[in-house]
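Re: the request from the purification team.
They wanted to know what the chain is likely to look like in 3D before they choose a buffer screen. I agreed to run a prediction and write the result into the notebook, where they can find it.
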Amino acid sequence: MSKLSLIDRFHHWRRKNRWNRQYKKGKWDYLNNDREDLRYQKIVEFISKYASKNPTILDLGAGEAVLNGKFDKNSYSHFYNVDFSKNSIDKAKQKQLPNSTSLVADIHNYNPNKTYDVIVFNEAYYYVHHNLKKEVLNRFISKLKPNGLLVVSIYKEGLDCWEIIDANTSIEKLDFNKVETDREQTYWKVGAYRVN
């Protein structure tokens, strides 16, 4: 975060506080609806297809652990839900999902001391400040085990996100889909990448 100006750090702090208020008021409850389920199912499909059996999964931008809840408890060894909203993580913890850990952390500076079979940027990468996108991406790629899988889900286009991800020579693209809904303007792009 030291690479951000004082004004950028203020805006980041303000966003965090806004999301805490919104999660507390239930504004993000729509993440559990059928339309959102389409993108979650694509993420689950990519993990099932490309990840090792019973993977350890790190979900960055996990919110209240909706993605974690889409998996059968026997399909992963451990699931880590990370979000910078304390209120969303409190909701995740209330679910008491098996073999899961939920923690509050900011992906701008979160640096876990373990490696994972799968890391998911779950509607989170486009919130990373532009000046830090490459650094954050590289940090989490380095947290993937050999043959690890990176899955990225981005609402609509995600300014510069795909260009930065696709230009990274540490990963290779395995799959990429546009997940469309009954609303023309509501779609996601989901990519799966293998670490080199």
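For the purification team: The beta strands are 56-60, 78-83, 100-104, 116-122, 144-155, 171-180, 187-195.
Please add any questions underneath this entry.
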